[in-house]
Write a structure and sequence with these properties.
The structure is a single chain. This protein folds into two domains: 101 residues, 2-enoyl-CoA Hydratase, Chain A, domain 1, CATH 3.90.226; 178 residues, 2-enoyl-CoA Hydratase, Chain A, domain 1. The strands form three sheets. Strands 6, 7, 8, 9, 10, 11, 12 and 13 form an eight-stranded mixed sheet that branches. A three-stranded parallel sheet has the order 1-3-5, with helices on both faces. The chain has a two-stranded parallel sheet with strand order 2-4. It is globular, with a radius of gyration of 23 Å. Helix 9 runs parallel beside helix 11 and helix 13 runs antiparallel to helix 14. It has 16 helices and 13 strands. The protein starts with 9 loop residues before the first helix and ends in a 17-residue tail after the last helix. The model has no long low-confidence stretch (mean pLDDT 93). With 379 residues, the protein is α/β, with parallel strands linked by helices. Helix content is 39%, strand content 17%. Strand 7 and strand 8 form a beta hairpin.
Length: 379
C-alpha cells in the first residue's frame, strides 16, 4: 500500500469515485491491516467471517509498543467487534460459504449501476404467523415488542436481509420485497432500549438511507420512536450532530418514501423517521398510533409540574389524569388526519396491501434534486 507503488494508493480514490455508481461489497475472509483496512471501509457493505476476518490500523504488537495497551487481535479489530461495536461490519457470518451467499442475496436487491432500477422477482405472500399483525403491537406505549415480527407480517416471505444486525440494535435496517419489488426498511425496535434513537443508530440509519437512495431502492419507515436519547453522555458524544446527519439523509433522499406510524412517534424522532413535512410520498398511521412532541405523562410533567405541586395531595392525581386526557384529545390521530398531517389511517391487516398499492403508484414519479454541488451535512 505504499503511496504510488503499483498504484495501490489509488484504490481508495477509485472506490470513492465509484461510490453510488456501482454497488461495492467486501467479503473479508482474513486480516485487512494498516492502510489496507480502508479498502473495506469504502465499500457499501462489509461481510466478515467470524474468527478469521479482522481490520485494524496497528497490530496488537504495535499497539503495545506505541500506547502500552495489551490487547488481543479479536478485541482490537476482530469481526465480532466491528459488527457490534464499531459498526464497520455489516454482516457477521460463520464461514466463507455463508459470506458468499450473503453477497449473492445482497446483489439481488441492487441494480447493475446507477440510473437503473433494481430488478423485481416472483412475488410471494407474507409469512402467516401465529398472531395477526394487530396483536403483535401492544396498546401500552412503553411496552416492548419485536418489530421484526411486524416486518415479517408485511413483507414477502423469506425476503428479509438485515444490514448491521448486531450494531445499534434499537434500530433495524435491511432489504426486503413487497410483491416481488425491493424496498429498504428502516424500523425502530421497541424491544431494544425502547426504540430510542442513539448516536450509533442515527449513523446506521443515515448510511442505509444514503445506500438505498443511491441505487433507487424505495424506502419504508416503520416508526415506533420515543425520540432521540437525552443526557450528558449522549450530548458529549454529539447526539445532536448524529441526529442531524440522519435527518439530512432522510431529507435529501429522492426515492419513493412511505412512513408508517406503528404506535408512536414523538419529537424529532418523527422527523428522523420521514414523518410529515419531510417530503414522504405518504405518511400512514395504524389506529393505535400517536404523533406528538412527547407522550401525555411527560408532557404534563414538563408543563404543569409546579401547578400540580401547589394542589392538595388528594387532588393531584385526578387533575393529572384530566390534563393527560386533554393532551391526548388534542393530538388525536383522526384530528391529525383531518388536518392532512396524516394521509391515511390503515387497519394493521390492510397494511401490506396498502403499501404494495402505494409503492406501485409512486414507482414512476420523479423527484429532482436541489441544483447545487453538494450540501454541507454533519458528520
Amino acid at each position: 500500500m505504499f503511496p504510488g507503488r503499483r498504484h495501490a494508493g489509488r484504490i481508495f480514490f477509485n472506490e470513492v469515485q465509484l461510490s453510488g455508481v456501482v454497488p461495492q461489497i467486501c467479503m473479508l475472509f482474513g486480516p485487512s491491516a494498516a492502510g489496507g483496512a480502508y479498502i473495506p471501509a469504502f465499500c457499501d457493505v462489509v461481510v466478515m467471517v467470524e474468527g478469521n476476518a479482522s481490520m485494524y490500523l496497528g497490530s496488537p504488537r504495535m499497539v503495545e509498543v506505541v500506547v502500552g495497551e495489551h490487547v488481543s487481535l479479536e478485541e482490537l479489530g476482530g469481526a465480532r467487534m466491528h459488527a457490534t461495536e464499531s459498526g464497520l461490519g455489516d454482516a457477521l457470518v460463520a464461514d466463507d460459504s455463508e459470506a458468499i451467499e450473503f453477497a449473492k442475496a445482497y446483489f439481488g436487491y441492487m441494480p447493475q449501476r446507477t440510473g437503473e432500477k433494481p430488478a423485481a422477482c416472483e412475488p410471494r405472500p407474507a409469512r402467516v404467523g401465529p398472531k395477526p399483525i394487530g396483536e403483535l403491537i401492544p396498546a401500552e406505549a412503553n411496552r416492548g415488542y419485536d418489530m421484526r415480527k411486524v416486518i415479517d407480517a408485511v413483507i414477502d416471505e423469506d425476503s428479509w436481509l438485515e444490514i448491521k444486525k448486531l450494531f445499534a440494535k434499537e434500530l433495524l435496517t435491511g432489504f426486503a420485497r413487497l410483491d416481488g419489488h425491493p424496498v429498504g426498511i428502516v424500523a425502530n425496535q421497541p424491544m431494544q432500549k425502547g426504540g430510542v434513537l442513539f448516536n450509533d443508530s442515527a449513523d446506521k440509519a443515515a448510511r442505509f438511507v444514503w445506500l438505498c437512495d443511491a441505487f433507487e431502492v424505495p424506502l419504508l419507515f416503520l416508526a415506533d420512536v420515543p425520540g432521540f436519547m437525552i443526557g450528558t453522555d449522549v450530548e458529549r458524544k454529539g447526539i445532536i450532530r448524529h441526529g442531524a446527519k440522519m435527518i439530512s439523509a432522510v431529507s435529501e433522499a429522492t426515492v419513493p418514501k412511505i412512513s408508517v406510524i406503528v404506535r408512536k412517534a414523538y419529537g424529532a424522532g418523527l422527523y428522523a423517521m420521514a414523518g410529515p413535512a419531510y417530503d414522504s410520498d405518504s405518511v400512514i398511521a395504524l389506529p393505535s398510533a400517536q404523533i406528538a412532541v412527547m407522550g401525555p405523562e411527560p408532557a404534563v410533567n414538563a408543563v404543569f409540574f409546579n401547578k400540580l405541586a401547589e394542589l392538595p395531595e388528594d387532588q393531584r392525581e385526578g387533575r393529572r389524569r384530566q390534563l393527560e386526557d386533554e393532551y391526548s384529545a388534542d393530538v388525536d390521530l383522526y384530528k391529525l388526519a383531518a388536518n392532512l398531517i396524516v394521509d391515511d389511517v390503515v387497519e394493521p391487516e390492510a397494511l401490506r396491501d396498502t403499501l404494495i398499492k402505494r409503492f406501485r403508484a409512486y414507482a414512476t414519479r420523479e423527484s429532482p434534486r436541489v441544483d447545487r454541488k453538494h450540501g454541507v451535512f454533519p458528520v
